[in-house]
Amino acid sequence: MANNDLGLLALRLGIGGTLMAHGAQKLFGAFGGGGLEGTAGAMHAMGFRPGKRNAVLAGASEAGGGALLALGLATPVGGALAAAAMTAASFVHKPNGFFATDGGLELPAVLGLSSAALAVGGPGRISLDEATGHVLNKRWTTVLALAAAGFGAYTTIKAREQTVAADASAQEAADAPADGPDTPVAS
Fold this sequence. Notes:
Blueprint: H1 3-28, H2 35-45, H3 51-71, H4 75-93, H5 106-121, H6 128-131, H7 139-175
Helix pairs in contact: 1-2, 1-3, 1-5, 2-3, 3-4, 4-5, 4-7
């Protein structure tokens, strides 16, 4: 057993465990999370529509991807699922800058990058992928999983951006004076 394998095990357990906890918050309300209904409402408010479907997808990607990473099983799939969810989360936090202390994208970006790196680099020898002869950890699996995750993240982010823009336009229209800005006021 090499030091690299111990390092990868520690990284997988830390990243995977963190992702599982975040997914459990979303899906089950564990660790003070909102559960599925609370997360669905938050997702809707952030522009992810429908909120419940997006809450299930985000929670399952985090919890499932995190579990696969922690176990070192189907590592490319687990890493890709987590990276996709964290990419979408990063775009939500992006307007707040980088640092988590300001509500920035620091945490989801680091979790996503680490997940993608594990998907590409592999789980190490202390893993279920190793124990199963890497049947679920092939180069083609990595390419396919990351491509599908990238496409999923891209379409989710674009749909959210369109929803946020439409909501902003609707709010502007609702806030505009009923007579319109250029209508002279009678005296």
